[in-house]
């Protein structure tokens, strides 16, 4: 595993839409492991591939309950709304209040290509939405309602 170089606000790659993963190969599995290591090294709870310069629909999350690796994640349902403070490894030193759903259901592939569904509430719901936004070129600062 290796620590990848983080990309920061202003880097054009963060504003691009990521491509779907069509084949889960060793390169994708290495990317997932490297992203986890990079996220932990930087004390994050989530990381999307564009944040390390890769335009692939790949996300890792760990809200303290163990790592989750998601390939081609897609929100299939949302409920409620919660306003809470967010930050981002790609926007160091900045936080803001963002409105997110209180509950989400996300369909994704695991690293073995198995289709799974994860339901998230609280911090997990927020992290899922935040990281999936990254895959679409959206940063939390685009959604801040109050600094």
Automatic annotation (TrEMBL):
Keywords, comma-separated and alphabetical: Hydrolase, Iron, Metal-binding, Protein biosynthesis
InterPro entries according to UniProt: Peptide_deformylase (IPR023635), Peptide_deformylase_sf (IPR036821)
Domain of life: Bacteria
Enzyme Commission number: 3.5.1.88
Names of the cofactor(s): Fe(2+)
GO biological process entries: translation
SUPFAM superfamilies: Peptide deformylase
Cofactor, how bound (note): Binds 1 Fe(2+) ion.
Reaction(s) catalysed by this chain's protein: N-terminal N-formyl-L-methionyl-[peptide] + H2O = N-terminal L-methionyl-[peptide] + formate
GO molecular function term, any single one: metal ion binding
Sequence positions that bind Fe cation: 88, 130, 134
Active site: 131
Pfam annotation, one family: Pep_deformylase
Segments crossing the lipid bilayer: none
Entry similarity comment: Belongs to the polypeptide deformylase family.
Function: Removes the formyl group from the N-terminal Met of newly synthesized proteins. Requires at least a dipeptide for an efficient rate of reaction. N-terminal L-methionine is a prerequisite for activity but the enzyme has broad specificity at other positions.
Protein name in the entry: Peptide deformylase
Annotated source species: Caloranaerobacter azorensis H53214
Gene name in the database record: def
């Amino acid at each position: 595993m290796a620590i990848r170089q983080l990309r920061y606000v202003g880097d054009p790659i963060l504003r691009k839409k990521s491509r779907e993963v069509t084949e889960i190969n060793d390169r994708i599995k290495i990317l997932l492991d490297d992203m986890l290591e990079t996220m932990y090294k930087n004390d994050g709870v989530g990381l999307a591939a564009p944040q390390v310069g890769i335009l692939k629909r790949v996300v890792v999350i760990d809200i303290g309950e163990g790592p989750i690796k998601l390939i081609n994640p897609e929100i299939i349902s949302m409920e409620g709304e919660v306003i809470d403070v967010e930050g981002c490894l790609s926007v160091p030193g900045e936080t803001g209040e963002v409105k997110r759903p209180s509950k989400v259901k996300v369909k994704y592939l695991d690293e073995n290509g198995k289709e799974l569904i994860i339901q998230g509430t609280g911090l997990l719901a927020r992290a899922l939405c935040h990281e999936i936004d990254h895959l679409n070129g959206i940063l939390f600062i685009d959604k801040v309602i109050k600094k």
